[in-house]
Amino acid sequence: MTKGVAIFVSGGGSNMRALVADMVEDHPARPAVVLSNNADAGGIAWARAQGIPTEVVDHRPYGADRPAFEAALNAALAPHAPDIICLAGFMRILTAGFIDGWAGRMLNIHPSLLPKYKGLHTHARVLEAQDAQHGCTVHEVTAALDNGPMLGQAVLKVAPDDTPDSLAARVLTLEHRLYPAVLRRFAAGDRTPVLLHA
User: What are the chain's domains?
Assistant: First the structure.
């Protein structure tokens, strides 16, 4: 049975576009809805142009009341009945109350080789540490930040002349390969990690 996927974005949604581009006829999933906390997100405009249902839930009216914001997220998702959520540049940290309701059904992509460099500024931190390798990880989302079971990693070699910006661009190219490969396997019920190399 084909799984419906909700993709959460806050900006241009380049990973969302890569996921959607892969969800063609032989794929075990389909895009059920693209949701954003930002009405002006480029990813929302792109999804609408493709005929994909969209929802916008602006976090700002809720202030510090994250449970109320997350209740609105679930209400927006309900008509689309997704089976899986893919976070794809969604710039809001979700609470355990929301995450637990989607346990085992929510994926995220992070620009580091987890468990290294959880959180922000991963590319600069890799260079500061003089690491030989860098990359990205797709993992299940748990209440602990960037800490869920690993479902895939893509690895590249750090070049002597790399900057945080050049690394970010190179890793993003890998993200666009890794995330669709993991979702395809995950939606088919296979949680064997995907491993890619640049």
Answer: 1-102 (3.40.50.170), 109-198 (3.40.50.170)
